[in-house]
């Protein structure tokens, strides 16, 4: 029954993630933390794998269907930076685990960081019509932005989440749907780098394979459904869904901070 709940959470999170371009991990990670069933390190790893599976499907489908909004001049430097950032974020999380007396404190650090990111994202989203955006084209700047996003993605175990969209809105003046697709592209590279590092350094945490299979299956199924619905939904509806998710995530992260620090 518990495993079925994991599947449902990953499916629904990936549906919303594919529609909004937040990868689903920003929902999966804090929700599973709130259940308190698995260690925070295990949840971060499984969440990252689930997000990678969903974004892999989305990226491949976009490329094969010729529907991609990712421009190589911007998307490739961002992706390369995200890959490097993914490796750095993995090391940062390992360091936090090593200095925290117990895993709950590491979870509290993640929850606090995610809460700050989510609140900032919500404020920006509500005021974005009044904010003048940029049109960054310099490749070095794109790589540096990608590194920043990759570090957050890997460290928080959320894939990339809402911060990707804010950065893409502000620095590249992208529309909601274009930002969503570019966000998934960035998440794919950062999580691939993070997973590769875990395998090569033999730092994969212990878990039951059945849990991973169900979570990845839910992620892929949710990605398929979310991608199909994204084409039928207006951008204003996507924005409303995004704001609603951010409010829910803020409440869940507050709960997790309280639970981890008790």
What does this structure look like?
By secondary structure, the chain is mainly α. It is built from ten helices and no strands. It has helices spanning 2-20, 25-35, 40-65, 72-99, 103-127, 139-156, 162-172, 176-200, 209-230, 235-261. Helix 1 runs antiparallel to helix 2 (25-35), helix 4 crosses helix 8 and helix 5 (103-127) runs antiparallel to helix 10. The longest helix is centred in the N-terminal third of the chain and has 28 residues, at 72-99. It is globular. The two termini are 28 Å apart. The mean pLDDT is 82.
Short description:
The chain is 81% helix and 0% strand. The protein is built from ten helices and no strands.
Q: Layout of helices and strands, plus pairs?
A:
Blueprint: H1 2-20, H2 25-35, H3 40-65, H4 72-99, H5 103-127, H6 139-156, H7 162-172, H8 176-200, H9 209-230, H10 235-261
Helix pairs in contact: 1-2, 1-9, 2-3, 2-10, 3-8, 3-9, 4-6, 4-8, 5-7, 5-10, 6-8, 7-8
Q: Give the overall form.
A: globular
The computed structural class is: mainly alpha
- Helical residue percent? over 70%
Please state roughly what percent of the residues sit in beta strands, choosing from under 5%, 5-15%, 15-25%, 25-35%, 35-45% or over 45%. under 5%
What string, H for helix and E for strand, traces the elements in order? Answer: HHHHHHHHHH
Largest sheet: none
**Would you identify the regions where 5 or more consecutive residues have pLDDT less than 50?**
none
Number of strands: 0
Q: Please give the count of helices.
A: 10
Overall average residue pLDDT: 82
Determine the N-to-C terminus distance: 28 Å
Radius of gyration: 17 Å
